[in-house]
């Protein structure tokens, strides 16, 4: 995303490059002018006159020139480093401080003749800050920089060879031309800088607008998605209902029809040929048994996929993990104990209760944290699902809860729920000999 | 791994070699000085003293070479030094022209010597004549040390005074005595109606001002103060002295012919002209001697001293060695003694000047000056005054010279004329 520049950013980068190039040219010309003038002064034997108008001994001509050029190169490098992403803020501040230091050195080596390079540092500073307090921060930073520049002027004034003294070496006509050129350099730099500022502000404004419009699009997409999800749920429900109807029609309907037809035949035949009826009844029993097998197969098909493939514990862990990942709810599973053996229908009920419980916590309670605890007590197995959601003052027994209760009743289990800090749901399923026997009988 | 180690080893070897070379490389110091005398008199071997000092220094500091550029004339020296400073290749130790001293000290071209002077236990600044040492000070800190100095003395034509029956004035004589003698000797001896014997030649208001305690300039050379009581006394005296000659100009020829009683002379000029062969050539017709300058009503018999100073460049790469070299030139008693034989100046160290050995050397080096006692010279040096040393001093004084000359000749009212001069000098200084 950072790699792709908008045309505006490209223009900004281009202008920054121009600003850097322009300042480099000015520094080169200024340093070159001073260097050449100094050499000329020495060669025309006016060194003493020149020196006596200066408050300090200036640097040797070539040394001053190379110091300026070196300092400027370093400034550009630091600017590049500063603008480059992937730096910690501490490092960046350090680099900026170094940049200001080099700025001062450069200004001093140019004998304060050109202070435009301060603007280059300001441009760097502007480039980086995007925060809320950007304008204030910038104002303070710019004031600080200008204050510093002027303060340096005041301090260094007695410690540099002023530009005017260099210019004074030439004839008065030339002097005025030189000063005019110098001022033109300053002005043009300010023009470039202001242009850069305008572009920068513009680009930041557009960036904000772009982000706002993207946000709006996202919102719309979300709404559409929600509607689609509702519709999909309804479609799935219908499809399920159709499937159930088909299933019932195919299995129970077929068997019952067969049984009814068989019984009709029996009624007609019972007096005339009891032996045939007997045979017929055997056939009907056979059909009923087939029916039961079919029903079992159908019921099996209704079982959740996970439970089909995985043992209960892992299936529960999986459903919890998936739900947690998709909904963002933090779910903790506390396993205090599992029964050694469970029947398929018991497994399904437990699985459904967990599934329904965590779904309810998210959907109705808007919970962000859910704790699922399961454990064994003598004679029973319990599951407690507690969340930190809104709960509800007066629990309306929705479809989910009633459904759970019905399922539990089939297993002689019990469902309790209350809400204080969030909503808590406790389901108990009896375990043990009696129950097992009971069921055993059922199974027979 | 092996290559890395080899590289590391190579780097270490290189570093050792470099360090070895760096620490044992021959160190070269440069000295900046001009050919010829600092006191504008002919001198036989201009570099003799410096060579003696260099020889001594090199013997004491093996491995250090000292070089100097020869052949720079005194009048070109100031510009030469400025060019070197501008090019950044100025000598480590150099003679500082008096008029450039304040400029270079203020712009930081000269290294402050305070630290070296305080740290060096075998350096005692009190051996120098106070005014000579003071000449190398700027805003309370020393930036240069005196090499030698010459006081200005009053030359007396003993023959002429004897002929007129006038005793040689004592060293504490005043302007009144001076004026009286001048009036007495100024007359027409051959009866052609023109004055041909005069009181004084080359005595100007500057010398009068210095002996009347006139403080013309503020220390920074930004303000002039000509309108003092003392300065008025000077102008009145100069007018009186001028009136004695009745408008006739005294020339150097009159003096050479033995027709002038007094002439201020620097010690260097005295030493140059007194001995053979100059004496034969120039002043064979009369006997002469030196006394202090006459004192004005508000001043005393001070003498004007010209001091030759040397300083160290603030950018020298060898500050410690440079200080040692400067010390050898300015402080070493043997070199200071050589000043008496190799140059026309006086050593800046009082103890050297006052030693019997110095007297013997001086007498041997300056034939015909047996009566010149170095003890007296030393006394003169002690209460002599140095000229202000801000950069535009010479120009300002030339301007004042011109104006005052005019004023004396025109006979303008002294008070208003001084006012006018002060205004003009001030406007020049504050440009």
TrEMBL record, chain A:
Keywords of this entry:
ATP-binding, Coiled coil, Kinase, Membrane, Nucleotide-binding, Phosphoprotein, Transferase, Transmembrane, Transmembrane helix, Two-component regulatory system
What InterPro entries does the annotation carry? HATPase_C_sf (IPR036890), HATPase_dom (IPR003594), Sensor_HK_TwoCompSys (IPR050482), Sig_transdc_His_kin_sub3_dim/P (IPR011712)
Keyword Coiled coil found: yes
| Catalytic activity field | ATP + protein L-histidine = ADP + protein N-phospho-L-histidine
The yes or no answer to whether the keyword Cell membrane is present is no
One GO cellular component assignment for this chain's record is:
membrane
The entry lists its GO molecular-function terms as: ATP binding; phosphorelay sensor kinase activity; protein dimerization activity
Q: Which domain of life is it from?
A: Bacteria
EC number(s) reported in the record: 2.7.13.3
All copies of domain Histidine kinase/HSP90-like ATPase, residue ranges: 345-433
Transmembrane regions: 14-36, 64-82, 94-123, 135-156, 176-201
Positions in coiled-coil regions: 204-238
Pfam families for this protein = HATPase_c, HisKA_3
Q: What is this protein called?
A: histidine kinase
What organism does this protein naturally occur in? Selenomonas ruminantium
């Amino acid at each position: 995303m950072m790699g792709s520049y908008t045309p505006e950013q490209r223009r900004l980068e281009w202008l920054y490059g121009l600003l850097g190039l322009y300042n480099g040219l000015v520094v080169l010309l200024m340093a070159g002018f001073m260097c050449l003038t100094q050499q000329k002064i020495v060669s025309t034997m006016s060194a003493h006159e020149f020196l006596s108008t200066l408050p300090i001994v200036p640097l040797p001509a070539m040394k001053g020139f190379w110091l300026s050029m070196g300092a400027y190169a370093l400034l550009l490098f630091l600017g590049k480093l500063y603008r480059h992403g992937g730096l910690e803020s501490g490092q960046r501040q350090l680099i900026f401080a170094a940049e200001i230091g080099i700025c001062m050195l450069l200004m001093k080596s140019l004998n304060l003749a050109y202070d435009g390079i301060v603007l280059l540092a300001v441009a760097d500073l502007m480039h980086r800050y995007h925060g809320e307090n950007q304008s204030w921060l910038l104002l303070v930073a710019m004031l600080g920089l200008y204050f510093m520049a002027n303060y340096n002027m005041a301090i260094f004034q007695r410690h540099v060879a002023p530009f005017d003294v260099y210019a004074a070496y030439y004839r008065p006509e030339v002097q005025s031309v030189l000063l005019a050129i110098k001022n033109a350099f300053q002005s043009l730099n300010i023009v470039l800088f202001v242009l850069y500022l305008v572009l920068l502000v513009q680009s930041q404004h557009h960036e904000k607008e772009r982000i706002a419009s993207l946000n709006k699009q996202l919102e719309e997409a979300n709404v559409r998605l929600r509607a689609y999800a509702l519709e999909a749920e309804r479609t799935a429900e219908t499809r399920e209902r159709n499937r159930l109807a088909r299933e019932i029609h195919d299995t129970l309907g077929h068997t019952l029809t067969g049984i009814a037809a068989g019984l009709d035949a029996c009624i007609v035949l019972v007096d005339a040929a009891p032996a045939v009826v007997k045979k017929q009844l055997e056939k009907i029993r056979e059909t009923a048994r087939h029916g039961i097998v079919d029903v079992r197969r159908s019921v099996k098909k209704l079982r959740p996929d996970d439970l089909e493939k995985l043992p209960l514990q892992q299936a529960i862990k999986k459903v919890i993990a998936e739900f947690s990942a998709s909904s963002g709810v933090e779910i903790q599973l506390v396993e205090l104990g599992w029964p050694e053996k469970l029947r398929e229908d018991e497994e399904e009920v437990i699985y459904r209760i967990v599934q329904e419980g965590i779904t309810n916590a998210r959907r109705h309670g808007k919970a962000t944290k859910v704790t699922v605890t399961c454990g064994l007590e003598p004679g029973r197995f319990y599951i407690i699902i507690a969340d930190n959601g809104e709960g509800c003052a007066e629990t309306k027994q929705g479809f989910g809860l009633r459904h759970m209760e019905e399922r539990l009743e089939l297993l002689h289990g019990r469902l309790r729920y209350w809400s204080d800090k969030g909503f808590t749901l406790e389901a108990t399923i009896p375990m043990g000999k009696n129950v097992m026997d009971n069921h055993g009988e059922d199974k027979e | 791994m092996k290559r890395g180690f080899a590289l590391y080893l190579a780097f270490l070897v290189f570093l050792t070699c470099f360090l070895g070379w760096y620490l044992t490389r021959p160190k070269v110091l440069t000295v900046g000085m001009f050919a010829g005398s600092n006191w504008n008199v002919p001198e036989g071997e201009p570099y003799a003293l410096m060579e003696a000092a260099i020889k001594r220094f090199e013997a004491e500091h093996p491995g250090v070479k000292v070089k100097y550029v020869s052949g720079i004339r005194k009048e070109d020296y100031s510009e030469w030094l400025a060019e070197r400073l501008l090019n950044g290749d100025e000598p480590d130790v150099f003679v500082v022209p008096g008029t450039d001293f304040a400029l270079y000290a203020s712009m930081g071209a000269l290294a402050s010597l305070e630290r070296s002077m305080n740290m060096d236990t075998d350096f005692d600044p009190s051996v120098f004549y106070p005014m000579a040492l003071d000449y190398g000070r700027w805003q309370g800190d020393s930036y240069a040390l005196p090499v030698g100095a010459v006081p200005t003395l009053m030359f007396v034509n003993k023959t002429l005074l004897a002929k007129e029956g006038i005793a040689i004035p004592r060293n504490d004589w005043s302007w009144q005595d001076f004026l009286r003698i001048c009036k007495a000797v100024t007359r027409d001896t051959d009866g052609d109606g023109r004055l041909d014997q005069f009181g004084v030649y080359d005595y100007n208001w500057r010398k009068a001002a210095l002996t009347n305690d006139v403080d013309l300039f503020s220390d920074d050379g930004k303000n002039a103060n000509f309108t003092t009581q003392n300065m008025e006394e000077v102008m009145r005296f100069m007018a009186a002295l001028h009136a004695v000659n009745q408008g006739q100009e005294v020339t150097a020829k009159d003096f050479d012919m033995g027709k002038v009683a007094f002439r201020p002379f620097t010690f260097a000029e005295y030493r140059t002209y007194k001995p053979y062969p100059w004496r034969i050539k120039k002043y064979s017709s009369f006997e002469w001697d030196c006394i202090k300058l006459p004192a004005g009503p508000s001043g005393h018999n001070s003498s004007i001293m010209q001091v030759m100073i040397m300083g160290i460049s603030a950018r020298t790469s060898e500050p410690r060695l440079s200080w040692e070299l400067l010390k050898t030139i300015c402080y070493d008693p043997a070199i200071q003694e050589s000043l008496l034989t190799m140059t026309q100046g006086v050593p800046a160290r009082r103890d050297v000047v006052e030693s019997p050995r110095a007297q013997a050397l001086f007498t041997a080096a300056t034939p015909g000056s047996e009566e010149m006692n170095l003890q007296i010279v030393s006394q003169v040096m002690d209460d002599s005054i140095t000229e202000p040393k801000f950069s535009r001093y010479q120009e300002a004084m030339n301007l004042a010279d011109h104006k005052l000359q005019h004023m004396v000749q025109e006979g303008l009212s002294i008070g208003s004329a001084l006012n006018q001069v002060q205004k003009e000098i001030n406007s020049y200084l504050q440009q």
